[in-house]
């Protein structure tokens, strides 16, 4: 599962790809029969409308509902042959924004920053209702609260948002972020880094936290949402682009009807849906996938009226926070950044 990060280079690549690919992708949603998925290896069916959805990262339990919708035939019921593909070098956001693919997995933070720079992404569903990310440390580091970050070494990727979130939770706890040493983790994973040269890092508990449990390496974790409502944002989300919404709204509705059923299946059947993900991506660790799925399935919908529902105040709160900390140059037009209009009724 991708750690929370995005850089200036990624955003520049996103904008460049959007500009250069504009006007070249009118027929991308209808791929020729026989095209195969990088993630699943399944051949398309000519009688169905071929549609691609690009993942944000390698397949994991954030994506189980997509695989369940495909395996259970929910996409076929909507007349769709959905191809689940891995992101190219430019990233999933660039592929969706440019129209290369109509749907993808993204994050509220990157949609927010992209839209303030003219990137035409629109969030159409929240995959998980509440932010499951936070700062984690092995229990032997005795980090029980943000105050304990002082004097410790944080491992990250050099993104401005990391320090801003770290500063926010420390400020709210009366702690001083200037007393934290920052190290770039590079390509090292969390478990390697904490044994090498860091004390804590930003993780998603549903994957790295569960893996720590299975390894017998317990963590102390501070979820960022517990320190401010502004940090309880949607991560990840499903996105499309403005052109797809304008030109083929029925496709967006059909895709979400089936995808909603897929995530509902994963909510109701964690172990069976874990098996579906493992069938599609057999190289994943079975024990980790099953344990992660059991932990995450109840959190897809959580306290929302329906899976995928997004609240305006969540988008407004987080974009206000980003603007206050100069992570975005201008305020977000919140009502254009997301929509619930294509979700099926309860």
From TrEMBL:
Domain SsuA/THI5-like stretches: 60-272
InterPro entries assigned to the protein according to its UniProt record, in alphabetical order: NMT1/THI5, SsuA/THI5
Keywords from the named record: Signal
Residues making up the signal peptide according to the UniProt record: 1-23
BP terms from Gene Ontology: thiamine biosynthetic process
Lineage: superkingdom: Bacteria
Name of the protein described by the UniProt record: ABC-type nitrate/sulfonate/bicarbonate transport system substrate-binding protein
């Amino acid at each position: 599962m991708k750690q929370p990060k995005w850089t200036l280079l990624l955003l520049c690549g996103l904008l460049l790809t959007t500009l250069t690919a504009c006007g070249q992708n009118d027929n991308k949603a209808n791929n020729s029969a026989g095209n195969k998925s990088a993630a699943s290896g399944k051949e398309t069916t000519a009688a169905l409308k071929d549609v691609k959805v690009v993942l944000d990262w390698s397949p994991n339990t954030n994506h189980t509902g997509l695989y369940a919708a495909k395996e259970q035939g929910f996409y076929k019921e909507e007349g769709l042959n959905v191809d689940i593909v891995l992101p190219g070098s430019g990233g999933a956001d660039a592929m969706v924004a440019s129209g290369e693919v109509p749907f993808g997995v993204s994050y509220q933070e990157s949609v927010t920053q992209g839209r303030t720079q003219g990137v035409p992404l629109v969030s159409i569903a929240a995959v998980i209702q509440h932010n499951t990310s936070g700062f984690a440390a092995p229990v032997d580091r005795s980090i029980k609260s943000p105050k304990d970050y002082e004097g410790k070494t944080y491992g990250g990727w050099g993104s401005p948002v990391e320090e801003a979130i770290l500063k926010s939770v420390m400020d709210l706890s009366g702690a001083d972020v200037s007393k934290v040493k920052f190290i770039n983790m590079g390509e090292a994973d969390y478990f390697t880094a904490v044994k090498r040269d860091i004390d804590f890092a930003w993780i998603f508990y549903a994957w790295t936290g569960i893996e720590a449990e299975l390894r017998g390496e317990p963590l102390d974790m501070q979820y960022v949402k517990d320190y401010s409502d502004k940090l309880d944002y949607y991560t990840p989300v499903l996105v499309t682009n403005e052109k797809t919404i304008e030109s083929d709204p029925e496709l967006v509705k059909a895709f979400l009807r089936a995808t909603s059923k897929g995530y509902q299946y994963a909510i109701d059947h964690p172990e069976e849906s874990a098996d579906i993900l493992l069938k599609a991506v057999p190289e994943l660790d079975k024990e980790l996938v099953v344990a992660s799925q059991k932990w995450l399935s109840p959190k897809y919908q959580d306290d929302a009226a329906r899976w995928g529902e997004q609240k305006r105040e969540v988008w407004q709160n987080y974009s206000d926070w980003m603007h206050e900390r100069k992570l975005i140059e201008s305020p977000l037009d919140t009502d254009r950044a997301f929509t619930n209009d294509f979700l099926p009724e309860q």
